[in-house]
User: Which sequence fits this backbone?
């Protein structure tokens, strides 16, 4: 590992040399105790890895650091490599006009090499190679299929609209999801396909016409206006605008253009849109009352953080998505702590599912009332108590490990500087003080309660004694009076 002085003087090195150093640092972090240099700590290795990854894959430091927090180091390189190559072309057979089997046979006869996308989808086909342009075949022009990413099938499958329902697609352009919704509804009921961009509604309208959708109404509103413009939908689909961190292969400019301020700004907009989608849903619907939230991002700030915000502001709960493929969402990651039901959400990655990075959550609306401040505080305090209990358990486990393996811990901290050791020990001391203060307060409260109980018991005993003494005194007085009269 080079020293800071060597890194400062380091000139331009080849991609092969940098790649070798990245692999070496990853191997060292995987077995840090054995492979590390004695005078170097883990933080220095991590900073070197961050710098090399940013230069090798052309990311800014913020976005790369977020990916390093989300993914284990062993999977991080696989994710970054997968983001450098485009995903396979996938198409969705339009069940309003054809069947997947018939469409596949027709396209194969035209020189298209394809296969079913997987057991989880009944309408998807993946294309490996083709001798004809897929966007100009007679079948495409007749609306027999739609060029659509595999990950965009999943939000529609999760929403699972039924025939005859009222459904809102809040951000509908270019129309792939809306057309899939109409197919599942069998062209019945009412589908409101909305998009905030008037220019994009042109492509939306053209695709719905080509695909034979008859139950859709195209409109151009800001999504935040929908609870006032129209509401009481059975189901609402919100494929929210996002940073696009899951589709870097389609738009490489995301690597440099998205910083922390931009991500937080996008997350605030997503929170407002999700609350508007919830408010537009009819919780009394006999068949619905569901909202599906999705993004083409892998960042926690745009996914679990937004859904957790909605759980604390509205009377909703998370439901199973109903799709077998995908990884569970995070319930706890770094500084973020989320509701335990967040594991019902699904995450999709290019290197594991061979589709664009995606996040999908399904919510069930329980009531139209807005949660009060007391209710949100109660939920936060209950979550905080659970977190404190978990942290206390972790501290106890760490303390036991330190006692049992003191010598190993000393060897482990041999490469740390004095300042590093101080930084690591200070928060532990503070936590111990807090715990001791809390225990002292709780013990004092218990003693006060005991004293209160004892004083109450004493008062009751005295009252009983006085009540029993009163009739005896009255008898004595009567006897005295009788004796005095006889004398």
Assistant:
């Amino acid at each position: 590992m080079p020293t800071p002085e060597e890194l400062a003087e380091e000139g331009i090195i080849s991609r092969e040399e940098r790649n070798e150093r990245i692999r070496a640092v990853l191997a060292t972090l995987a077995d840090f105790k054995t492979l590390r240099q004695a005078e170097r700590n883990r933080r220095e290795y991590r900073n070197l890895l961050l710098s090399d990854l940013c230069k090798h894959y052309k990311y800014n430091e913020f976005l790369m650091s977020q990916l390093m927090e989300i993914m284990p180091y062993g999977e991080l390189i696989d994710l970054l490599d997968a983001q450098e190559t485009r995903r396979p072309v996938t198409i969705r057979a339009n069940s309003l006009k054809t069947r997947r089997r018939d469409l596949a046979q027709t396209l194969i006869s035209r020189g298209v090499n394809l296969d079913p996308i997987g057991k989880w989808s009944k309408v998807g086909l993946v294309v490996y190679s083709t001798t004809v342009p897929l966007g100009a075949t007679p079948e495409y022009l007749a609306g027999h299929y739609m060029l659509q990413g595999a990950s965009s099938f999943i939000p529609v499958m999760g929403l699972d609209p039924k025939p005859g329902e009222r459904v809102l697609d809040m951000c509908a352009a270019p129309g792939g999801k809306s057309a899939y919704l109409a197919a599942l509804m069998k062209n019945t009921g009412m589908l409101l396909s909305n998009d905030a961009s008037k220019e994009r509604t042109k492509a939306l309208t053209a695709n719905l016409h080509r695909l034979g959708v008859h139950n859709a109404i195209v409109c151009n509103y800001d999504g935040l206006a929908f609870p006032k413009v129209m509401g009481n939908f059975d189901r609402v689909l919100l494929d929210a605008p996002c940073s696009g961190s899951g589709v870097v292969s389609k738009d490489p400019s995301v690597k440099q253009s998205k910083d922390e301020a931009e991500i937080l700004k996008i997350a605030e907009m997503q929170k407002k849109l999700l609350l508007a989608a919830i408010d537009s849903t009819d919780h009394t619907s006999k068949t619905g009352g569901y909202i599906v939230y999705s993004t083409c991002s892998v960042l926690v700030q745009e996914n679990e953080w937004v859904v957790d915000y909605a759980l604390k502001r509205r009377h909703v709960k998370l439901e199973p998505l109903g799709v077998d493929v995908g990884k569970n969402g995070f319930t706890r990651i770094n500084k973020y702590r989320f509701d335990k039901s967040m594991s019902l959400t699904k995450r999709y990655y290019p290197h594991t599912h061979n589709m664009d990075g995606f996040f999908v959550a399904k919510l069930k609306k329980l009531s139209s009332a807005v949660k009060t401040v007391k209710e949100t505080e109660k939920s936060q305090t209950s979550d905080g108590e659970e977190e404190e209990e978990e942290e206390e358990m972790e501290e106890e486990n760490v303390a036991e490990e330190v006692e049992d393996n003191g010598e190993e811990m000393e060897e482990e901290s041999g490469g740390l500087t004095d300042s590093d050791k101080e930084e690591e020990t200070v928060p532990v001391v503070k936590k111990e003080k807090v715990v001791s203060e809390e225990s002292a307060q709780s013990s004092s409260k218990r003693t006060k309660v005991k004293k209160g109980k004892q004083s109450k018991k004493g008062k009751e005993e005295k009252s009983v004694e006085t009540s029993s003494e009163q009739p005896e005194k009255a008898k004595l007085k009567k006897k005295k009076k009788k004796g005095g009269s006889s004398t």
